[in-house]
Amino acid sequence: MSDKSPLKLLCVTAHPDDECFGFGGALMLAAERGIETSVLCFTDGQAATNRGAAATHAELGQMRRAEFAASCRILDVTHHEVLDYQDAQLEFANFSQAAALLVERIRRIRPDVVLTFGSDGGQNTHADHTMVSAFTTAAVHWAAQAKRFPALGPIHTVQRLFYTTTDFFFPGRPSPLPAPWTVTLDVARVQHRKFEAFRAHTSQLPLMERFQSFFEQRASREHYTLAATPHPQAAAHATDLFAGL
What we know:
Blueprint: E1 8-13, H1 18-32, E2 36-43, H2 57-74, E3 79-85, H3 95-109, E4 113-117, H4 127-143, E5 160-165, E6 183-186, H5 191-199, H6 205-218, E7 221-228
Parallel strand pairs: 1-2, 1-4, 2-3, 4-5
Antiparallel strand pairs: 5-7, 6-7
């Protein structure tokens, strides 16, 4: 019997529904292997265009928090948390404070792999996504450095930081500048549950209805870029976020 600790995955997002559309396949494949998964979402999505029956920002925020929890249950996420940052305002947040919050979570959760957005802002080039990428990238590096935030717990070195990236663009939307991928995940077996998780975001169903046929053509794969690792190495293509760990 091995004494090795179970592997852990942390996914950092900006809005409820990012977890299923951007990272749902990776989360479910990890859960199938007994990997502990955590999703940390910075905002409760109060600035969304689609608002369901919500009459106020606060009502929409409460609705989207509940939708996020329901989606995470479908994705078999072990732990999930929504922070109190303001939707569509992350570019104005205090960078050091946001990164420190993530440093504390990384040192407490001690993930082997961290997933987040790339600096392009994802397929919809959202500024919140770009900021979450920047916060998370800094936090992954700083969590391993004893001189950074020494009061926030013992240091932890993440083994791999990945950015989600893409092999397609949304029609009629500004195109991002995506990073070339180093990992392709075959998520065809679980893609129906990605759609089920998105449908748990009932306030956002008009968006799903608008793009579902487009999603379905491309939902069998997820692409990721290896952004950081403790070991110098040449870039290589892989089909597993955890290979060799």
